[in-house]
Amino acid sequence: MAASPSSAASRRVSRLIGLSVVGAVLTTVLAGCSVEDAFYFGWPRTKPSPQSEQMFDMWIYSAIAALAVGVFVWGLIFWCVIRYRKKGEDLPPQTRYNLPMELLFTVTPFIVIAVLFYYTAIIQSNVTKVDENPDQTIQVTAFKWNWQFQYPSTGSDPNANDVDDVKTTGDSNVIPILVVPTGQNIRFLEDSQDVIHSFWVPDLLFKRDVIPGVTNQFQVTINEPGAYVGRCAELCGTYHSMMNFEVRAVPLADYNTYLQLRVEGATTQDALSAIGQEPYAVTTKPFDTDRQAEQG
């Protein structure tokens, strides 16, 4: 006995749903992601600052809202496919308009957009906020193709925001390490010597362009000690991809000791070793910039 049209349609829908589930599972497995990684939606697990926590939460809730809307729309599509499938040659009743549905389709997106806009504005204001008197101020200078970090004054005035001659400058052989204290409001003042660069620490979920002739700034508080890779996020020339640095977050006491050792003439590596830190970058390494060597 031939199967009824309704049962055939049900089997087709079930097959489609099954294939979708299998496709989602295969995508996760073949991408090498764990189940936990999948729920991070591509964002880093480490969130060392309050600003990164807020941005991560915003991203996750936005993704959940988008998935909820998607599931709702997909459910309506499948429901219409099953409920209103063709049952004969007669033309079904035609509806010219439906006021409740039109109101629903107009008001619901507006509410979703308004909620997202509200939280986006709040989080953006918190992330870009700069205090008048931060705990630390560090000058970041970008150049083709590396970084220089100039540390705050170590004079008698603890509130001074001018900078001393304590500098760390990267080169082709040594990755520059930016040492910062944990639990402190740190203002970064940015400047470029040549073209536009971009100061980007992926774990902070934030970046800021470094523009020649313009002093950009931002503020962040890093609460978790650790080493965080930094990169240039603006295509700036031949060795853009090799323009890396490392942020080393240490307790305030170690940071003050580090600065004092630098003032006394210690190198970045010697001062880091003295406070129990690895003297060289652990999150990235220098790249060979010799074109002839690469060709050979």
Please describe what this structure looks like.
This protein is of the alpha+beta class and 296 residues long. It folds into 2 domains: 5-84 and 99-128, no CATH class; 136-286, Cupredoxins -  blue copper proteins (Immunoglobulin-like), CATH 2.60.40.420. Helix content is 40%, strand content 22%. It has 7 helices and 10 strands. The strands form 2 sheets. The protein has a 5-stranded mixed beta sheet, covered by helices on one side. It has a 5-stranded mixed beta sheet with strand order 4-10-9-6-7. A hairpin with a 2-residue loop joins strand 1 and strand 2. Helix 3 packs antiparallel against helix 4 (99-128) and helix 5 (252-263) crosses helix 6 (268-274). The protein is elongated. The model is unreliable at 155-163 (pLDDT under 50).
Concise description?
The chain has 296 residues and is an alpha+beta fold. The chain is 40% helix and 22% strand.
| CATH class placement of the largest domain | Mainly Beta
How large is the radius of gyration? 27 Å
The percentage helix is 25-40%
C-alpha geometry: elongated
Distance between the termini: 74 Å
Which keywords apply here?
single chain; 296 residues; alpha+beta; five-stranded mixed sheet
Helices, strands, pairings?
Layout lengths: L4 H26 L4 H4 L11 H34 L15 H30 L7 E8 L2 E7 L10 E7 L7 E5 L3 E8 L4 E5 L4 E5 L5 E6 L4 E7 L11 E7 L1 H12 L4 H7 L16 H5 L1
Helix pairs in contact: 3-4, 5-6
